[in-house]
Amino acid sequence: MDGDMTYKLIALDVDGTLLNDEHEISEQTLKTIKEVSSQGAEIVLCTGRGPQNSIPFMEQMGLSGYVISHNGAVTVKTDTREVVHQFALDVKAIAPYLNYFREIKVHFDVNTAFNMYVDSVDGLAVEVRSMYENFLMLPSVLPSMDEFSEPIVKVTLFDYAEKLDEIYQELSKWTPEFNILRSGEYFVDLMNPEASKGHALENLAKSKGIRQEEVLALGNYYNDITMLTYAGKGIAMDNSPLDVKAAADEVTASNNEDGVHAALLKYCLS
Fold first, then answer.
1. Collapsed DSSP state (helix, strand, coil) of residue 63
2. pTM of the model
3. Which of 158, 175, 191 is the last residue of a domain?
4. CA 14, CA 20: separation in Å to the nearest integer?
5. Whole-angstrom distance, CA of residue 260 vs CA of residue 27
6. 163, 232: one domain
């Protein structure tokens, strides 16, 4: 084992990390996670997904505890669905962004902790609809902003990578009032500037009296960098972009080769 370090909190990204490209947890990885959990380490999922399509994976693994969802904007208790922490967006500040997204015809959704809204449900393009089906989500129609009774935590853009690269460049010239993040090849997220996986993970660890060096994190994309650098040990998947690998302490196998299993075996079970 890594000196005598015992990892007490293990943060796992979901897509591209815990799940293989078929959106499944392999039998091998499942078995290893259950074993690590039975030895007392707490597993927390840290994902760009909302709680409603990440909590089922906790249930599949037989775990209670927490999911850090919407890339750190919302932390939810798995069994009670209670929101223990959220970073809300300034609704007035969002308006010009949404108008711009409509002008340039990029698809976006607006998220509260548990719900997702789009301008039109009927008019969804085929690839947009299949993306939501893949993520087990069905959005509702976006009401006017003054009708929201709960905080908005994230706005997500969905389009081809090249188009998102251009939009990301353009938005980086605007007054920096949001955390704007490439959260996947086909996604860009707008969040509260305080919201990140690393920040949410740090808050959770502190609330449990767990020291930074007792935290292990695994991820594969740019939105995982904050948690990989916060954790005492940050491990990137082999399918990560180079910048993500550079931010990590080491690299494990890919998400299609049971990389999570390999890392947990090395640091938590050996």
1. coil
2. 0.90
3. 191
4. 9
5. 12
6. no
| pLDDT, tens digit only, all 270 positions of the chain | 444 579 999 999 999 999 999 999 999 999 999 999 999 999 999 999 999 989 999 999 999 999 999 999 999 999 999 999 999 999 889 999 999 999 999 999 999 999 999 998 887 888 888 888 877 778 999 988 888 888 999 999 999 999 999 999 999 999 889 999 888 889 999 999 999 999 999 999 999 999 999 999 999 999 999 999 999 999 999 999 999 999 999 999 999 999 999 999 999 997
Range of the domain at 177: 91-191
Residues 6+ apart with CB under 8 A from 80: none
- Tally of domains within the chain: 2
Dist. CA 209–CA 251, nearest whole Å: 28
User: What b/e string do you get for 58-86 counting C-beta neighbours within 10 Å, with b at 16 or more?
Assistant: beebebebbbbbbbbbbbbebeeeebebb
Question: DSSP state, 103?
Answer: H
Task: Give the start-end residues of each E strand in 159-214.
Answer: 179-184, 187-191
d(CA 105, CA 127): 15
Residue 59: what are its φ and ψ, rounded to 5°? -65, -40
Q: Is residue 3 part of a domain?
A: no
Q: Which amino acid is at 90?
A: D
CATH of the domain at 201: 3.40.50.1000
Count of beta carbons in the 10 Å neighbourhood of residue 170? 11
For residue 122, give the CATH number of its domain: 3.30.1240.10
- Of 191, 217, 248, which one is at a domain's C-terminal end? 191
Report the run of H or E that residue 234 belongs to, with start and end: strand 233-236
CB 108 within 8 Å of CB 98: yes
